[in-house]
Amino acid sequence: MSAKQEYDVQTLLTHGGIQPDQHHGFVNTPIYRGSTVVFPSAEAFREGRQKYQYGRWGNPSTDALTSAIKALEGAEGTVLCPSGLAACSTAILALMEAGDHILIPDNVYSPVRTLCDSLQNRFNFEVTYYDPTLGADIESLVKPNTKVIYTESPGSLTMEVQDIPAIVRVARTHGAFTITDNTWGTPLFFPAIEHGIDLSVMAATKYIVGHSDAMLGTISASPRAWDKIKSFHALTGIFASPDDVTLALRGLRTLHVRLERHQRNAIAVGKWLEQRSEVKSVFYPALESHPQHNLWKRDFKGASGLLSFVTREAPQACVDKLVDSLKLFSIGYSWGGFESLVLPATLQSIRTAKPWEEPGHLIRLHVGLEDADDLIRDLEEALNEFSKNLK
């Protein structure tokens, strides 16, 4: 399909990347597995006169997904990576050189923080972690060698919403690039490139795939950054499995309806949690109690199913009992699938720009596609166990 603005997002999700005329009338692009691609002649080989020339350089499966994501993002181009973390690291490395400075939000996805800590020593990158609520005040941290300002909005675990337009203006003023991890909102709820972001990264493992059965990352670029990410991606030989790509294409078709249900359920759960005496605070941008609710309302078109809450101060045993008592929320990493998940988290050791001093326990929920009342009953029983063990 052509330009994003010509079609509603629901239409893009349904038809993006589909070319039945290229595949004998089949609606879905077949899975193209392969490394070697043969040429019809020596001349064709010598001149590279063939759309597909080697498996790592793309095939009809990967083209179907990249064209669909490109249209959804309104991007100049999209590349695929074998995981969300691979997409984050590829985006950073594509823009940075030895001696460059990068600004990273203090609430960034922890593996990205670990990566950046390593890059400081291995590649002579300078890294500064910043308070994600700075907005335009981030300019005070910009240095002459600042090459990238990285954002993640809402941020991991504590869900701060960043003032992306203000940060983009600062970056452009100083000639820096911007990257955002847009996994939570996806382009449906936050059109990152439309807001001026140079590289929009998603862990497609989560909402794009949507079924907890494949790992994948995407990087979509503005015209300003496309040549950099395209060339670096090719140089490093990064490739996504056509089987995982096909699962992502399947998930993409229902993304809109799934996110609507995730949002509806998460709002119901979040509002209910706010009324519980065991809960000190709920972190979910769609709630009016969220500190950056107005920013979310200004820039986002919706909210997904990921939220966090802080319990009142309690022994660890009470929190363990709460988590272990849940029947519909399974304990596990990742999120974005159809099922609900719970993850207890500790932040004291991984926040530096704005130390985490909350005495309560942080618990992250991914609110799935189950019936909201069933999920609330499950949480009610678990919180009752929390209170019972507190006495």
From TrEMBL:
Pfam name, any one: Cys_Met_Meta_PP
Keywords of the record: Lyase, Pyridoxal phosphate
One of the GO BP terms on file: L-cysteine catabolic process to pyruvate
Cofactors (names): pyridoxal 5'-phosphate
InterPro entries noted in UniProt: Cys/Met-Metab_PyrdxlP-dep_enz (IPR000277), Cys_b_lyase_bac (IPR006233), Cys_met_metab_PP (IPR054542), PyrdxlP-dep_Trfase (IPR015424), PyrdxlP-dep_Trfase_major (IPR015421), PyrdxlP-dep_Trfase_small (IPR015422)
EC number, as in UniProt: 4.4.1.8
Family per similarity comment: Belongs to the trans-sulfuration enzymes family.
Gene behind the chain: metC
Domain of life, source organism: Bacteria
Gene Ontology terms for molecular function: cysteine-S-conjugate beta-lyase activity; pyridoxal phosphate binding
Reactions catalysed, as given in the entry: L,L-cystathionine + H2O = L-homocysteine + pyruvate + NH4(+); an S-substituted L-cysteine + H2O = a thiol + pyruvate + NH4(+)
Protein name: Cystathionine beta-lyase
Positions of modified residues (N6-(pyridoxal phosphate)lysine): 206
EC category: lyase
PANTHER family linked to this entry: CYSTATHIONINE BETA-LYASE-RELATED (PTHR43500:SF1)
Pathway: Amino-acid biosynthesis; L-methionine biosynthesis via de novo pathway; L-homocysteine from L-cystathionine: step 1/1
Source taxonomy: Bacteria, Pseudomonadati, Pseudomonadota, Gammaproteobacteria, Pseudomonadales
